[in-house]
Amino acid sequence: EVQLVESGGGLVQPGGSLRLSCEASGFTFSGSAMSWVRQAPGKGLEWVSALSGNGANTYHADSVKGRFTISRDNSKNTLYLQMNSLRAEDTAVYYCAKGRSWHTNTVFDYWGQGTLVTVSS
Amino acid sequence: DIQMTQSPSSLSASVGDRVTITCRASQGINNYLAWFQQKPGKVPKLLVYAASTLQSGVPSRFSGSGSGTDFTLTISSLQPEDVAVYYCQKYDGAPFTFGPGTKVDIK
How far is CA A40 from CA A44, A50, A63, B3, B77, in A? Predict the structure, then answer.
């Protein structure tokens, strides 16, 4: 059974940093591209970042480029999102999602339960 | 970047009705299109990928069609458990943009 468990969310002040983690199990982690998607309170889904199965190819939305970095440790079956220079508009539930294939041009078929990030003073 | 639009933004239909949601890409994306269902307070769930392939376990009343720029999600007979927001997403390349969503309610 595919399981994705996010952690690391919480309350942070504007300008602060957080690192989100997503522990994966139930599938071949290195064989799957991974992605982060967020949802602000009462809003729609916004794609944030994605990376390929070997981590060589990474992509970020313009809204987070230069501030967020996606990475993975395939030896630990864990996906990360390093978030710096946080803004109020980054407040959202952050979901990690698993790709059907190792490359990022793939559908993301399983999602974790999400972790809430609140940016506020 | 390619923009994704959906119509309508919301709809209300009776149980048993046929419901159609449209998603349009501002440029062609071949069939790199997925549909997700998000019930209130729940995690988004994949319904359809490659524009028309039903994800395993999804009821057969859901179907997807289209290619290029115009796509459709159809619920052949609306059920009370289908109350949700439906999103399309392109995945032909970054950015992997979602549509704004279509809220489906029971009349």
Answer: 7, 19, 13, 19, 31
